[in-house]
Amino acid sequence: MMTTNHLRTGLMLILACSLSACLKSNPPVKSERYSLPEVPTSAGATQDKSASKTVVLNKIQLADYLDSDRIVVQLDDITLHPARDHLWVDNLSQELRRGLRSRLSSRLADTAVVDPLPGAPLKTTSLQLTIDQFHGQMQGYAVLSGQWQLLSADLTPLQHQSFKFSTPLRESGYPALVRALGSNLDLLSEQIAAQIQRMP
Length: 200
Description:
8-stranded mixed beta sheet; Rossmann fold; elongated; alpha/beta; 200 residues
């Protein structure tokens, strides 16, 4: 007759064997973390301190599948795969916010691009951004799509535009994908900055 101790020992052996088999079939892989390319220092280091305009960069809205720290790759026409071991340094919304703010600042010498202050009333133009796509494709492209909107201080829409950018990867691998996604963000920043510059 099997005692409680024998039963416990048997269960522990089964768990140990199962864990060992699991580790052999899925060995631990070192995670890599990536950050979007920074704006060159010479381009963005000297924003005019006496800026005549201010634009508040509101919270960036991400599609649910992007709202994490995992880099996403589209495997075919219907399958999106979040990488297990290739991650953003921060949540993607923070990466995009930091990258967009620095890129807009580098293109708008007379405009201060700032984060919203919690509880402070809006007294200036604000930028709202929705991101629908920000991932790689197996065909060798990085895609960025969504919509942006400029709002006046009283929340009246000033400009609204949808966008989609696709940049080919220069080589295979996640570093090339991250750089291509950064190039897409460059294009988006140029588009938004051009519109802000037209504003009175």
